[in-house]
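can u pls check wat happens w/ 1,3-dihydroxyacetonephosphate
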Amino acid sequence: MRKPIIIGNWKMNLNLEDARRLIVELRQGFIDVDERKIDIVVCPAFVHLQGVNFQLPVNIKLGAQDVFWKERGAYTGEVSPLMLKDIGVRYVIVGHSERRKNVQETDEMINKKIEAALSQKLFPVLCVGETKEEREKNLTDSIITEQVTKDLEGIKASSLEKIIIAYEPVWAIGSGKTPRGEDANKVAKLIRKVIEERYSKDQADKVRILYGGSVDQRNIKEFIDQPQIDGALVGEASLSANKFIKIVEQVIK
Ligand code: 13P
């Protein structure tokens, strides 16, 4: 049995005061949530990680939105996995489509980031997904296969169960549009097949696969009910305590 996981990606939103207020509300909302039943993760901006961490209860874990692939050195502006680990970060989003697009992050860079995160025992949350144009050209399967293959290149089988993969169709992010639950499930199944071919069925069955893209309290059920989907990566709706709590409630029901 794979443990469900709901991750809130706050992106470049909130000031410190609002971020802390959100945590206070989530803490209250999750007061009865058993951390053995579900992993709940919030990913604030780098500058708010520490300020938020002080207020987190045991059943909400801290995640970062990115990481650099070196441990230390002359890399102006970057943040290392060692630094994240040091301040209590447990999860790190890697290869989000907004980074692939806005700062031209490549699969090679993403692969190095996953390696680096694993070296500090952080859980990498690898994001993959096709654009609208790729979907229209029926390229979804080949894009997903290529991203998963390149991003996991050289990753040891023993590390695999720490990796979480989020299927986030680019066209679904922030658009209010989503694929049907069955279609997202098919892609999750494909991801497992790609992993099985490179590792083993056993390994593929252990990896947690999430859906992300316009998830909210009204549509979460459609995705979490799918056999291959183990949770969600939530953007906009994770900025509202009320919506995020309702999402988690439906997952543990
Ligand atoms: P939205 O939920 O706002 O569509 O964002 C999804 C996402 O990109 C999470 O990483």
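The CA atoms of residues 203 and 233 lie 22 Å apart.
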